[in-house]
Amino acid sequence: MFETLILMLDATMRVSTPLIFAALAGLYSERAGIVDIGLEGKILGSAFAAAAGAAIFGSAWIGLCFGIMASISLAMIHGFACITHRGDHIVSGVAINTIVAGLTVTLSMDWFGMGGQTPTLSGDARFLSITLPFADALADVPVIGLIYSELLSGHNILVYLAFAMVPMTFWVVYKTRFGLRLRAVGENPHAVDTAGISVAFIRYRALIVCGILCGLAGAYLSTAHNAGFLKDMSAGKGYMALAALIFGKWRPVPVLFACLLFGFLDAVAVRMQGVVLPGIGEVPVQAIEVLPYVLTVLLLAGFIGKAVGPKAIGRPYVKERA
Amino acid sequence: MSEAKVPAWVNIALIPFLNILLAFIVSGLVILAIGENPIEAAGYLVYGAFGYDEGIGYTLYYATNLIFTGLAVSVAFKGGLFNIGGEGQAYIGGLGVGLVCLALDHTMPLYIIAPLAIIGAAVFGAAWAYIPAYLQARRGSHIVITTIMFNFIASSLMVYLIVNWLKEDGRMAPNSRTFEENAWLPYLHELLSPLGIDIGDSPLNLAFIIALICCVFVWGLIWHTRWGYQLRTLGTNPTAARYAGIDTAKVTIWAMLISGGLAGFVGINEIMGVNHNLLLNFTAGYGFAGIAVSLMGRNHPIGIVLAAILFGALYQGGAELAFEIPTITPEIVVVIQGLVILFSGALEHMFKDRIEGFFIRRAVA
């Protein structure tokens, strides 16, 4: 029983990693007042660029750089539309998701000709799991050994990075000058402008950070979690990250727990397939799959707590002219 | 800045034309990057979509779905609501159609099944839109987020229902049994051949006519009823609408119900018209494509029909293109679609402000 739980938590960590990256990416963007439903597209674009880069150059790190660059470019298109041209944030996000969904398949067919996939990656072209020191030696110690060797050890570096990004984001958002301005721009851009700080510049920088984090999420999917790019491999993770962001009320630590909860539900769904529970019968996998979305809807509707987003979110900032 | 000085054709024709032109130029660059000739590709595309009878039939068949989802998006849009859940509403609408057909195809003739199926599509689609609408109107949760979530919930619900309850016994394929032929919506080529008109075999069916009727209905509803006036007021200025005594929550909910019902009609075309059974993922992105259609068609039924035919042509021509030039995938159409959303939606101010400025300056001078 204990071992099963550890294995499920282990799976939770793996599944949650892209959600954590993407949800934190959304946090920077939305805290600065830019709605980002283009998380999905940025993840997918980065997953493709990372896998293609890794396949061509044989290095996961070069792939990661490509992934991040692709994701930042998409974030900049979003910024160009939403910040510079005061376009609708949702429409721009939908556009990015649609373009990427088509473009990744079109390009990978042309470059690799494998029905929209990239070649299978192996060796240095992937982020492989890291065994923490003494993990094997401690494996036989009761309880702690299992937690250390199974749960904490044996992940790839991006998983650890994702968890490290949470305190990092907390520090940036709440303890730095940039973070203060970021939050201010999302709540009251006029005040920021009055203080002589460029609203547009802060928002663009927030989107660059958003791009980097989505890039990490995408690269994780194609070069760490899987061994290559598959058509539509982001499979709604961007939207689920958005749900986690709302569920975590736009704050780093609660967002982490929301991602872990959604990841855990995913692990449960996989494990519950065909399992008959005493007294309840077989729980349909789909019922567990939809829980993240149902919970988010309930939260947004104020049935379980209340989620209030940044005040100036989704509204273009127009400088007043005398 | 008075908009009155800008000639009407600029907003109706010139700006949409420039937007689509830009989208095509960028797509052409993508094709060029692949190492193919964009002009040659465009030739195949146009031939595939309009060059022969079957091609035209397929184009209009795809357009049928896009008219439904485009209208769905635009009705909500008129009220300032962004219904991004067309995909889920269409999916559940198809469930309504499927259930009616499965229940009645052994006993009832088509002229009874068809109206009931249309009602089924509308009621199921509208019901799926009702919950996000209610939550937006009465509990203040954001309609975009809830409708996105409801797309996923719809998808899981349909997998559960089809795999566990509606699947044909003893078969592996996740779809229901094929309906009896009296629950099939007639193909237009079948209807027209007794009259001596030959339009070639295509999945184009009676749903296309229903789509055109829906256009007239939406046009009348939005521009020629009191409710339509309330809806447009709400969309233009919610504060003014409330001040004028309009029950904004009620208008919001009704706008979403109509929007969801229209999206649900995709099920009529796909389930009753073409597939003749209830299957997974028949919505195939039409709900999202509706956003592009509605933006391109400036939220007006005539514009939506034209935009839907354009996108239908892209779908059909894209298939032809992929057949003729195998290095180009049909997904190139999705890229074009995304670019249209980007240029005519997200970047609408980029051209509009400059062009309008140009015409205003010229009018003043």
Automatic annotation (TrEMBL), chain A:
Gene source species: Marinomonas aquiplantarum
InterPro entries in UniProt: ABC_transp_permease
Bilayer topology annotation: Multi-pass membrane protein
Subcellular localization: Cell inner membrane
Highest taxon in the source lineage: Bacteria
CDD domains xref list: TM_PBP1_transp_TpRbsC_like (cd06580)
GO CC term (a single one): plasma membrane
Protein name, as recorded: Nucleoside ABC transporter membrane protein
Key word Metal-binding present: no
Pfam families linked to this entry: BPD_transp_2
Automatic annotation (TrEMBL), chain B:
Topological category with respect to the lipid bilayer: Multi-pass membrane protein
Lineage: superkingdom: Bacteria
Cell membrane recorded as keyword: yes
GO CC terms in record: plasma membrane
Sample GO molecular function, one term: transmembrane transporter activity
Location in the cell: Cell inner membrane
Any Pfam family the entry gives: BPD_transp_2
Keywords from the UniProt entry: Cell membrane, Membrane, Transmembrane, Transmembrane helix
Protein name: Nucleoside ABC transporter membrane protein
Species this chain originates from: Marinomonas aquiplantarum
